[in-house]
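User: Predict the structure for this protein chain, please.
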Amino acid sequence: MARKKPQLPTELVTVTIDKLVHGGQGLGTLDSGQKIFVWNTMPGEQVQARIIKKKKNYLEAVAEEIIEPSIDRLEPLDANYLSTSPWQIVPLAIENDYKAAIVRELFAHEHITLPEFTVTSGQSWQYRNKMEYSFWGDEAGLHLALHERGSHGKQVVEGSSLAMPTVDVGANGVLAELQKISDLRAGDLKTIIIRAQQDGQAVGALFVKQEKFPALALPAGLKGLRIYYSNPKSPASVTTKLLHEVGDTTLVDTIGGSSLAYDVVGFFQVNLPIFEQTLTAIDRALGDAPSIDMYSGVGSIGIPLKSRALIEIDLANIDMAKRNTTTSEVIHASSESAIEYITGEDVVIVDPPRAGLHADVTQRLLEKMPPTICYLSCNPATQARDIALLQEKYEITSFALYNYFPHTPHIETLAILSRKP
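Assistant: Here is the predicted structure, written as structure tokens:
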């Protein structure tokens, strides 16, 4: 294990975990009455945990010794599981139950009683079509790496058990080309993103901190590669300037019978088999009714479902959406600045970012009262908040939880809201 900076000072506490919470940690209470959120835990376990963050009203920690383990605890497949998938210790069926309980609690907090719902999960390993790796350099050379939860360090990795095999083949292909550059330092690099089509063909985007970075030959395992200069002042892998491009860097998949092109650095679903099932549920709710798709991305929902309008703010997604459809109107705008498209006649499909619906969108829905709202969410906390505002005029007629990301705390939920009589 390699570390970028010294580990935080060690301060250990012993605590029993009561439950898992939204976000993925176990929640316990210290003898002092202070709440503590602890990674690497399951309900009922007594653990010794290292404190990594102190807040006014709570602590955050990582369990370093499991004093009394749960009988259900599993041995994780990956050494770096706490970084990518902290619930590798949880059996999938139990994970689904935990996620359902978390969703019910979040909605109950907003005084919403959910109808009975199902939890859908598919392949639990090698399902991710996208991974992002960092880099680490030492005496042995350059390595792929991931940040280590609870420290300022990184862990050297060869791949992830969550990723489609072709994704990790591509990442190691890029690494092999980088290792040929004699004077390259890990500090010259930010990250590598690899994204794969369902047929296994993969594309990469390498983010570097130098504007004068050499071109690379097309790495083994990739059909295309871009190299971006990324502003060193930003910790994120931003596409400041395209330096080099080799091969075919466009990705294409068929979803709901529609062929959709998308970009390696744009938004696209990470688990397509589960997304297809979600799409079927939305299609069932639509019936023959016309619809508009807000927060539409490249059109992965609206195009297969023949929505009359797609509303999206990201220009790269807009370019792909225009390529993907000849029948839907594609509007380059934020959803809150395009609320005039909510007329009350069309079903409205929303799949907002984690922040949930903009207040102007919610208000417009209440004013125009479309017959049905299909609300797909990657954050059930903000979804519950939004539905609490809408429930004056809408009721939840169908609800489902989709486990897009097994072995992680991430939750996707679909609520079908019907206008009250």
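The helical segments are 81-84, 92-109, 165-178, 272-286, 315-324, 359-368, 380-390.
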